[in-house]
Amino acid sequence: MTAKQWFNWHSLSGVWFGVLLFIICWTGAFASIAHELDWLFNDQVRAVEGQSNISLAAAYEMVQKAYPDARIGIAFTGPDTYFAHDIVMRMPDSPWQHVYVDPYSGTILGASSFFNIQRFFRDFHMHFFGVFDSIISYYLVLIFAVPLCISTVSAHYVYRGWWKKLFAFTFSGDARAKMASVHKISGAWGLWLAVVISLTSIWYLFEFVRMDMVDGKTAFTDVGDFAVNPLAELPRQDKPQLSVVELFAIVKAARPDLEVKAIRYSGGYFYAEGQSQDWIVRDRANKIYVNPYTGEVVYSQTASSQGLYWRLSDTADPLHFGNFVGIWGKILWFIFGIVLSFLVLSGTYMYIKRQFKLRRKDECRGVVVSLVLGFGLLLCICFYAQHTIAGYGMAGKWPELPTASFTFLVSWVSLTCLIILFWSAALLNLCLKHRGGS
Prior knowledge:
Blueprint: H1 3-31, H2 34-41, H3 56-66, E1 71-76, E2 85-90, E3 97-101, E4 108-113, H4 117-127, H5 136-142, H6 145-158, H7 175-213, E5 219-223, E6 227-231, H8 244-254, E7 259-266, E8 269-275, E9 286-290, E10 297-301, H9 308-321, H10 326-357, H11 362-390, H12 403-437
Parallel strand pairs: 5-6
Antiparallel strand pairs: 1-2, 1-7, 2-3, 3-4, 7-8, 8-9, 9-10
């Protein structure tokens, strides 16, 4: 294709999908640091560092004793040492909630709704809060991997020698020329993340198509037919189970290489997952199943023992969110995620302005249609968002959040709405000026 054709592909992907592509990049940027935002705005999440170290299993049992009627779903260690242990549980006739245990003192720091900042960005970024209440909601997000990939690939051809533009800022010219300069510099610096996000997003889309239309497999090993290597469910036995602390010790003895990140009961087994010697994999790549009645290790999996396909599947998440190199990696992904969001908006604005300057009248109709469709879907997302969020509360009421967390989310939503409204108004203003000057 010619450079002009590549330019049109590069630009039109933003024109037609700009509003929602911005939302996906914008929410993804904040999703990469969502755990840290919960730590910042909810003091119950924060550990008070000290000398002793309470294991995740000990924290699990502390919550069991403090809430004897509760059903515990899963227990997590925090993403870093300054996070409290997180035990997800629910009382009878109550929704799920987080209970936080200080890993140094063993103090139960408090309980809060299962809905938090991390859950807000996860539900928004992953499936638009389950809009339309079906699998369609996932595909509505995943299909945007295609225009994102088109923009990324075409950028290589539109801006050949992009590495030469890393510091090539233009101070002269009109506002459009300066914005174009910022757009090119931002694109040059953010191209690496655009490639990573494009590839992992295409991978997610491929995985969903495979799961829904080919084999229905969602894991290499698990309890159930949805796994490639299914484990038979362990029936209840008429004898007491070993304690969680004892089972945890068995896991550590069987897998001294495993840094346990989560524990729970799954299909009758005691289950643990975490990080081992394999690099850039999610926690579930390394897992172990133990018979809680006998202490027998029934199955132990490493990331590399699954084969290439499932190894790649477990690598996609860490690459997509940058959580494999600690807090600094997350901050890096966050910053350049904001850059990608800016590129969507600025690129669309410049392209429309250029087309109107060239007296191409059809672009105005396309802008209006794109904005109408985008805002229509955003209204649907808002409708389903309130139902999804209310589902985390009691009797259909919205869950209670710490004041600081609630204030942050309200501020974020307000800022997001303002950005979209100003950007849309700028595009429509271009249309009006163009029509008035025709």
